[in-house]
Amino acid sequence: MDGYRAQLARWLQLLAAKGVQDLLLVNRPWPLEVPLPATLFTITTLTRLYVGVWKLPGTAALRGASFPRLRELGLYFVEMEHGVVDSLVARSPVLEILNIVGCMKGGLRLRLVSQSLRCLQICGFVLEDIAVVKTPCLERFILSSPCKPAGGLCTRLRIVDAPKLQAFGYLEPGQILEVQGTVIMPGIKASESALLTSVKILSLNVCFGVSNDVKMVPTFLKCFPNAERLHIMSAKCGQPTGNRLTVKFWEESDPKQNLLSRINMLTFREFKGDRGEVGFLEFVFQSARALDKVAIFMANPSFTRFSTDEALVKAQYSARNLASKYCEKCIIWSSRPEGGDAWSLRVGADFSFEDPFTVMPARKEDS
Q1: What's the rounded Cα separation, in Å, for the pair 300 and 303?
Q2: 229: enclosing H helix or E strand
Q3: CA separation, residue 32 to residues 2, 35, 36, 52, 78 (Å)
Q4: Helix, coil or strand: residue 193
Q5: What would the pLDDT profile of 80-125 be if each residue is shown by its tens digit?
Q6: Among the listed ranges 7-16, 156-165, 269-278, 321-330, which one has the minimum average pLDDT value?
Q7: Mean pLDDT throughout 27-45?
């Protein structure tokens, strides 16, 4: 494509003249870092734009750009300098959906200010610093399969102003969560301003074999006091560290508050039968008194150290003290490779799906 840049610029001019609204522009084949013609940013009629495997122009080239009708933007495996996404969002006054997928070079830093954005999805990127500064309409903030920053650094997620945020995940204990200027850490007594009270659907990606990760879970849960649906992904641990925390740890971490008082739906994916997983499920089943729907998705037997029968018995044993007598339970074996989940970019951006983290059908009274 590098040899056809002038021709591509001409094509984009013709598309602009024809008032194109929906455009998917992918650079194939190699090389991957071909500069995307700035002509693209003169097409003011676009309502949906997806670009893949390009090098985006710098912020200086975007100063005159404007997307007054753009509602959906997808960036796939693009190379870009810091500030480009912020600039594109700022020039898209009705943008509702922003999807960013894949990393070619460097990490991702965002400082989001948007009066219209409803859904932000980031997948497979090296996340450095994501700041949700002012997004009064943001309902979904989904992070999936993030790559670890170099040098042992941690991803920093900052939520400043997102009053309508309803679905948030996959939050990982290794990430630094900052809410209204308060860094969330074990032992902290979060003020009212550091609580994300609007979040109803929460998803956590937890390595139950790593004590430091597990110890962050109750701390995170305290930040979402109104969460009604909890989705857990049991992450693969390279080398387990520390003690496998049992139900006693969870009871001691929640002496009076009952972190799970509002949870009515739980999904637990990639259950392998490890002690830490069983301890967490025991705590949930004896504490979440509003619970009425549970699905445990067993890991593919090829990826577990227990036999099929052993892991199944452990899952059933954890539910022996289920607080609610009216809870609908199901235990399902997965045939997919380890790490499979229900979320997808399509589902996440489709607001007809009430919950982007589960494939469980909605209750009749909710439909």
Answers
A1: 6
A2: strand 229-234
A3: 9, 9, 11, 9, 8
A4: helix
A5: 889 999 999 999 999 999 999 987 677 889 999 999 999 999 998 8
A6: 321-330
A7: 83
Do 152 and 277 reside in the same domain of the chain? no
208 and 343 in a single domain? The answer is yes
Quickly list H helices, the chain: 5-18, 84-90, 211-221, 247-253, 275-287, 308-318, 345-348
The CB density around residue 174, as the number of other CB atoms within 10 Å, is 16
What six digits make up the tokens of 336? Answer: 């997919």
Residues 114, 95: one domain? yes
Number of structural domains (the chain) is 2
Indicate whether 164 pLDDT > 90. Answer: yes
Of the chain, the percentage scoring pLDDT greater than 70 comes to: 86
Q: Which domain holds residue 149?
A: 1-165
**Same domain flag for 261 and 284:** yes
Three-state secondary-structure class, residue 79: strand
Amino acid, res. 244: R
35 is written with which tokens? 């500069």
pLDDT, tens digit, 9 for 90 and up, residues 249-275: 887 776 555 678 899 999 999 888 888
H-type alpha helices, 222-342: 247-253, 275-287, 308-318
Tokens for 348, please give them: 């996440």
Q: Are 144 and 122 in contact (CB under 8 A)?
A: yes
What whole-number distance in Å separates Cα of residue 284 and Cα of residue 296?
12
Using alpha carbons, select from 146, 140, 91, 136 the residue that is nearest to residue 116.
Answer: 136
